[in-house]
Amino acid sequence: MPPLRFPEFTEPWETAKLGEVVEFCNERISTSELSIDNYVSTENLLQDFQGVLPANSIPADTNVISYKEGDILISNIRPYLRKVWKADNRGGCSTDVFVLRTKKSNCNSSFINYQIANDRFITYDFP
Length: 127
Hints:
The chain is of the alpha+beta class. Helices cover 15% and strands 23% of the residues. The protein is built from 3 helices and 8 strands; from the N terminus they run αββββββββαα. Strands 1-8-5-6 form a 4-stranded antiparallel β-sheet. Strands 2-4-7-3 form a 4-stranded mixed β-sheet, with no helix packed on it. Strand 5 (72-75) and strand 6 (84-86) form a beta hairpin. The termini are far apart.
């Protein structure tokens, strides 16, 4: 076994497929509960893994996909733009944005975010 990189890491390392540790979130939230600060679409999700800006507008009187803090949002339109963001709040997003949520309690969403928010994942998953 190779030496551990981080002294606080004591549990054995597990290898898993992405689908085993995350799931697509399909929960819904009413847009009446959202603001420009917690609505995400492909328009305000920044390219090159740079995060998100406040939205210009929110769709009226509809339900959108909800997300919570720690979820990973990824644009499913033009993935080569590398629009990926780890949510730091609760909110909702358009259907053009996938919401990935960890299924396992021992799987850190920051680790999953680092795996997804890199060029190797984007070019592998969306050639």
